[in-house]
Amino acid sequence: MSLILSIESSCDETAAAVVESGSKVLSSVVASQIAKHAVHGGVVPELAAREHLKAVIPVTQSALTEAGVTIKDIEAVAVTQGPGLIPALLVGMNFAKGLAQANDLPLIGVNHFLAHIYGAFLDSDLSVLQDKETYPLLALVVSGGHTSLLLISEDGSARQLGCTIDDAAGEALDKGAKLLNLGYPGGPIMQKTAENGDPEKFDFPRPLTGGAGRALAPENLYNFSFSGIKTALLYHVRKAEEANCINDQWLYDTAASFQRAVVDVLVRKTLTVLKNYPVKTVVVAGGVACNAELRRMMAERLPEKVALRIAPPKYCTDNAAMVGGIAWHYLKKGLTSPLDIDSFARLPQIVKVPFI
Ligand code: KG4
Ligand code: ZN
Predict the structure, then answer these.
(1) How far apart are CA 51 and CA 31, in angstroms?
(2) How many helices (H) and strands (E) does the chain have?
(3) pLDDT band at residue 38, thresholds of 50, 70 and 90?
(4) 269 exposure class (CB count in 10 Å sphere: 0-12, 13-18, 19+)
(5) CA-proximal residue: ligand 1, atom 24 (nearest)
(6) Residue 115 C-alpha to ligand 2 middle, in angstroms?
(7) In the predicted model, what is the mean pLDDT of residues 167-191?
């Protein structure tokens, strides 16, 4: 039995988890700071760091208690190294280092982006990761910070086929919700507001999908762009204000049509990859993977022969279980980290994943 204690503090969630042998989640505790940041309409890095300082010890204690273990039962301490907000990351990193050193445990710095992908394999039979039939695997990572397509081969090598050239999908939903005065974070509120609306009522653009007779530059075949949808929303709101036609139904229809445009782009780009590569599995990961419309449209439009894996919502948004899960594979490969590792803000080029 190999138990890893993991810490996550890359953005506005302080999280800790205990995960057994890369799969079984014994506890996953998440303290959200959403209420603190909502008044500012977005995450304030220094405020996030200060909130992590307050929460990191109680959250870790709860994770151990809920798992029914003590630090003596733990084999390694894992922590999100990046990408993320540096002031926020440093709190989790320093805490994990102290914990590892004081208890003479190995430290494992984890890439948050890869951890999101691994979320789709938690609480499941890991033999699928060793099965040749799983690959090539295409991961669509969609969160507040990322919108990226990563192609993973059977030998663990990986290649980013494309990413957003401006806003991330979650960022677009968050900014869209702000424009509509719906509050923060926008993704879940947009989904809720869209439930009563007609997604075909208003026509928002689908940037970089080659529609409307516009040729798509080859370098953008797998890239995304969401700033145009956001600008279109701004003009849509202004026009409605001038025409004095804003009412509840207009809001529901606008949210539904805007959400549909974002989801449609994500699905279409995934299908474009499937046309050109013999993909056997699609993983959708990151906070936006919670979105019910995205989950439904992916399942509906993916060919039947392609396996679709999307983690339950609790493992899509930021959590420490995904960090502790993937860390077990680093540990098995002897990929522990020295105590002087640094946090990083940006996503490095991914050429390999550790879990195969
Ligand atoms: O993965 P995550 O928790 O943090 C980052 O690493 O960014 O993702 C947060 C993002 C936010 O943009 C949030 O609006 C979005 O995920 N999100 C959703 C939903 N739940 C969270 N977007 C659409 N529908 C949802 N239900
Ligand atoms: Zn994240």
Answers:
(1) 10
(2) 11, 10
(3) confident
(4) buried
(5) 291
(6) 8
(7) 95
User: What is the chain's length?
Assistant: 356
Q: Rounded to an integer, what distance in angstroms lies between the CA atom of residue 136 and that of residue 175?
A: 34
Residue with tokens 């139904």: 249
AA identity, residue 342 = D
Which residues pair with residue 322 across a beta bridge? none
Phi and psi at residue 299, in whole multiples of 5°? -60, -35
DSSP 73-88: G--EEEEEEESS-HHH
Of the candidates 29, 19, 284, 286, the residue with the CA atom closest to the CA atom of residue 126:
19
Q: Which residues line ligand 1 (CB under 6 A)?
A: 11, 143-145, 170, 173-174, 185-188, 191, 286-288, 290-291, 317-318
What pLDDT is attached to residue 213?
65
What's this model's pTM, rounded to 2 decimal places? 0.97
**57-83 exposure pattern, b = at least 16 Cβ within 10 A, e = fewer:** eebbeebbeebebeeeebebbbbbbbb
- 314-352 core/surface letters (b: 16 or more CB in 10 A; e: else): ebbbbbbbbbbbbbbbbbeeeebbeeebebbeebeebee
pLDDT digits (tens, 9 = 90+) for 206-220: 999 986 667 789 999
Q: Report the distance separating Cα 266 and Cα 219, nearest Å.
A: 17
Residue 244 φ then ψ, to 5°: 55, 45
